[in-house]
Structures are given as structure tokens and as C-alpha cells.
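User: I'm putting together notes for a lab meeting next week and I want to include a structural view of one of the chains we've been expressing. I don't have a solved structure, so I'd like a prediction I can at least talk through. The sequence is below, exactly as it appears in our construct file.
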Amino acid sequence: GVSLVCGAFGTFAHQAYAACRSGPVSSNVRPHKMTFSIRLAQERDVPDLGIIEVQARSRFTDDEMTLELRMYRTPEHELHACRRQGLLWVADVPSIGSVGFCAADQLEDCLHVLQMSVLPAQGRNGIGTRFLAQIHREAKDRGLKGVTLTTFSHIAWNAPAYGRYGFVAIKPDEVSPALLERLQSEGAAGLINRVAMRKSAA
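Assistant: Thanks for the context. Below is the predicted structure for the 202-residue chain, given as C-alpha cells.
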């Protein structure tokens, strides 16, 4: 499948996006915070995750991503494979249900974020930030070297926002064969300006 790590993941990502779209975010704005919890996904959760994934991509413009790619859903068999490895988490909001998910797999000596999506209406609640903290902790617990992902380099709420969380862009000549294969797959699917990033588990 094509990795489209693009979900909203916390206040700083949304502020960066808002600044890009309509100028600086006022310090007087205090978004309503909703209570949520992160848990391992169950088999019954998987069929509904595609809806979250597609809605999360509604924030992209036609110039940033084609309609076909915005409608792409990670195949359920891939999500089930992540779930069986204990690498699929969902975010639940009381009275609403699941509003986001994060799927990962092991790629070489790191955990790799396959997909992270949060419903736009539930943004600025820190859900994505918690997902990233969860997968980073999981990598450490498994004795792996870190966490990797691929994302857009030119969109404020993608690579620059991940950079604020400690991810560093991998130089082209230092990208591992497995990560390079994923970047090439994304390019073949029509994605441009993609970059691989890594955060050490140390």
C-alpha cells in the first residue's frame, strides 16, 4: 500500500497549518479540549478506520493531492496485520467513538508509521502527539533504534511539524533500501515532495 502519513497530530501541527493558510494564530484562541483515550485496536475497529483516513485527507487541496489519492484507504488486511503485531492504535472520545488511528510496522531496525489519521473536527486536542509518543515508547520497549515515517516536505503541517516533535529528515544518500522502496512506491502512485524522517529511540 501507499503510506500517506498526513493526519493532524496535535496543537502545533494545526497552528502551523493555520499560519500557512491565514496568518498567525491568535494567542487568545483557546480551542475546546476533549477527553480522549488511546488503546490498542480490536478486530471490530478496523472496518471503520478507512472513513477516518479519508476524512483526515479532506484538508489537502487539489494542488497538494489528487482526489484519487485523497480517497485512498489503507487495505484492511494491512491494518489487521498491524493489529496482530500490536501496532495499531485508536483514539476514542466519549460519546463519539473512534476519531483517529495510528498504524505501524517494523521496518528494518525501526518502527515505521504506515498511517496516522485524525478526524479534522477532533484536531488541536493532542491526539496525534499522543500517537507519536505511543509509537516512540513502543520502539524503545521493543529494543529498536527508533521510529521512521514518510511525509510531505513542503506542507507546514507535515514534515515541519514532525520536526518539532523530534523527527529529522534523512539525507537522500542515507535512506535505507527498505525506506527508499517505500518512497519510490509513493512516487509511482503520484505523490511528490516526499521525505523520509526518523526519530531516535534513545
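A couple of points you could mention at the meeting. Residues 127-141 form the longest helix (15 residues). The CA atoms of residues 73 and 116 lie 12 Å apart.

User: Perfect, that's what I needed.
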